[in-house]
Amino acid sequence: MKMLNGPKIAVGLLVILFTAIASVNAAEKPPEIALKPDIVIKDLRIDRISSTPTADNVRITVTVINTVSGTSTGPFKIKVEWTENPTAGYTTLGTSGVSNLINDPSSISVRSETRTFDHTVPKGKAYKYLVTADFMNQVSEADESNNVNSAGYVAR
What domain count does the chain have? Predict the structure, then answer.
């Protein structure tokens, strides 16, 4: 009985197959992971800009940044609301658009945008201000839960 070269041929074919697969895989690039931007309210300030016997005029200053390096947001809007009683709801004070927040790793500083909103608070009243960045959900973000901040002001 004569031995067939079947095992040698099978091993040879496997070597050729694995070599071909290895060369195809080596030529392929790993899939790119698309990073998402993350809009954060970096600073929220309420400053009295003037006062009368009956009211304080205040300026709400909102600064937003994109915290994810190498991403940009595209357009979005910031909304400021106010209330005397948070359980009763809020009234919109104003909105303002931001065209794009770019976080460029080659830049020394992270680009931010600042918007201001003026309001009059009657003497003796305490107002709470609620600020929401990207309130229309125009930007798909890495973290959608960190776009809100609040602060209060009492006119004395």
Answer: 1
**DSSP conformation letters of 101-148:** -EE-TTSSS--EEEEEEEEEEETT-EEEEEEEETTT--S--S-TT--E
Q: Is residue 63 part of a domain?
A: yes
* Summary mean pLDDT of the chain: 88
What would the DSSP string read from start to end of 28-71? SPPPPPPP---EEEEEEEEEEEEE-SSEEEEEEEEEEEE-STTE
Q: What is the CATH number of the domain that holds 147?
A: 2.60.40.10
Q: Give the per-residue pLDDT at 100.
A: 95
What would the pLDDT profile of 31-88 be if each residue is shown by its tens digit? 677 899 999 999 999 999 999 999 999 999 999 999 999 999 999 999 999 999 999 9
Residue with tokens 């080596």: 26
What pLDDT does residue 22 have?
A: 53
Q: At 151, which helix (H) or strand (E)?
A: strand 148-154
Q: Examine residue 4 and state whether it is found in any structural domain, yes or no.
A: no
Q: Are 76 and 136 in contact (CB under 8 A)?
A: yes
